[in-house]
Write a structure and sequence with these properties.
By secondary structure, this protein is of the alpha/beta class. Helices cover 34% and strands 18% of the residues. The longest helix is centred in the N-terminal third of the chain and has 15 residues.
Length: 462
């Protein structure tokens, strides 16, 4: 299995509501769903003085800049997303680089020599750069001053290579036939006035990840009459697994944001499920604490479970719970494979539910409620159950925890029917549906699907 990659996405546009911001978030989301560890750094939100006073001046680094150095050191791959203004990057991003990539951290001059040590070697980078000029003009007429500066004079100088450059422009005059909006969250948010105005101004073609999104997308917004649904891809590590030789022990798993009905599930577990299966365990993933990531003892983070326990929660039921610390994607997938059933109540804004999709691809039967997108993730009575009420939910969970024949049938059906698409297949579908549409100008270039097999990610950028 390939080593998991650490990716740092750096947004260099000063404005949070910009095309660059949307591209950066889309890349980060795609990389996470492809199995990478991702951190996001928004330069516009950092508290620091971008006016560099020179190497000879005493200018201590602010806490945000020290944290940025920690993130850069952590990363295997750096993704810089920014616009070209007057031939180069914005001044704020340049100030960030001046303050962060310092001698002794990013490079070190050798005494008595004109050579230097490249202290950030071993990392690669991508530049996702927007511009109002056509890329051919920026390349052949102005000779790419901003690209040369970032690639050659900054990143490769510090040892970061290879550096891939992707140019997107002219943004201001891009054809509406070639603009797409990848909708990964509940589309009802677009009905807010300022967002709706931008949709009507740019008139992109919306690309949804589920039929549920199409159903709730406001009909008065552009693109509602010709929706495109392209589900998320699933990591290769969860697809194509063989059937298990024996049924797992009576172990259920919850792997989502605990605010998404964990309290409801725990109450039902204590009241109806556990009494029928006394030896069962419920493993809980997702009760994460960002302080834990930086070394806080897990016992302190585990105490957070208390806020999700219903009042009067029985001690026996508490003893059956197995709250887990934050896990890598590989460890989470193996935990899913070792579970007999996934239990998830769902949330009304669920747009795709990757946890259930991955569990099903791994062969884990799931019991869910008919909320939001969940009926699209489970084949009722084939790879799991869609329970209409609490009693039905409990009955189905008990059956899968105790009936080996039922578990076997749904386990093998999930492996056969719920493999989904790979990220490469998803990218190809996106290109076929959106990017290959005819444009009004031969010079218009909007977006592409960036594949990086070496990094193990495929991210949609639009």
């Amino acid at each position: 299995m390939a080593e998991q990659q650490n990716i740092l996405v750096i947004l260099g546009h000063p404005t949070a509501e910009s095309l660059c911001a949307g591209m950066a978030r889309a890349y980060a989301e795609g990389a996470r769903r492809a199995g990478a560890q991702v951190r996001f750094l928004d330069v516009g939100q950092l508290a620091f003085n971008p006016l560099f006073q020179g190497y000879g001046a005493a200018q201590p680094l602010e806490p945000d800049l020290l944290a940025a150095q920690t993130d850069i050191t952590w990363a295997h791959h750096l993704v810089w997303v920014y616009p070209i203004w007057w031939g180069a990057m914005p001044a704020l991003l340049k100030g960030f680089i001046d303050r962060v990539l310092l001698p002794g951290y990013a490079f070190k001059y050798r005494k008595g020599s004109s050579l230097w040590d490249k202290l950030l070697a071993g990392r690669s980078a991508e530049l996702l750069v927007t511009m109002d000029s056509p890329p051919w003009y920026f390349r052949w007429v102005t000779r790419m001053p901003g690209h040369q500066q970032m690639k050659k004079a900054i990143l490769e100088f510090c040892g970061i290579r290879p550096v891939q450059v992707h140019s997107f422009g002219p943004v201001r005059s891009a054809s509406a036939d070639r603009l797409a909006l990848w909708v990964v969250w509940p589309p009802g948010n677009f009905s807010r006035r300022h967002r709706a105005a931008r949709l009507w101004w740019h008139r992109p073609r919306p690309v949804f990840v589920s039929r549920f999104q199409v159903h709730v997308y406001p009909r008065w917004l552009p693109g509602s009459r010709s929706p495109v649904v392209i589900p998320f891809g699933l990591p290769d590590q969860v697809r194509g697994r063989p059937a298990l030789g024996a049924a797992p022990p009576p172990r259920a798993i919850f792997a989502s944001n605990p605010q998404r009905e964990l309290r409801w599930l725990l109450a039902l577990w204590a009241r109806a499920i556990l009494p029928a299966v006394p030896g069962a365990e419920l493993h809980l993933y997702g009760i994460r604490d960002y302080a834990y990531r930086y070394g806080e003892p897990w016992v302190e983070t585990e105490s957070r479970l208390g806020q999700f326990l219903p009042d009067g929660f029985p001690a026996a039921a508490r003893a059956s719970l197995r709250p887990q610390p934050p896990a890598t994607r590989d460890r989470l997938w193996e935990a899913m494979r070792g579970a007999r059933v996934m239990l998830y109540g769902g949330h009304r804004v669920e747009a795709f539910c990757l946890a259930v999709a991955e569990a099903q691809a791994l062969g884990v039967p799931a019991v869910v409620r008919p909320i939001a997108v969940l009926p699209e993730r489970v084949r009722d009575e084939v790879t799991g159950f869609i329970a209409l009420d609490d009693d039905a939910f409990a009955r189905r969970a008990i059956a899968l925890l105790t009936d080996d024949r039922l578990w076997r049938a749904q386990h093998e059906a999930a492996l056969r029917l719920q493999q989904g698409w790979s990220w490469d297949q998803m990218a190809e579908r996106f290109e076929a549906e959106v990017l290959r549409a005819p444009a009004r100008g031969w010079w218009t270039r909007v977006s592409t699907a960036t594949r990086s097999r070496r990094q193990g990610t495929v991210a949609g950028l639009w």
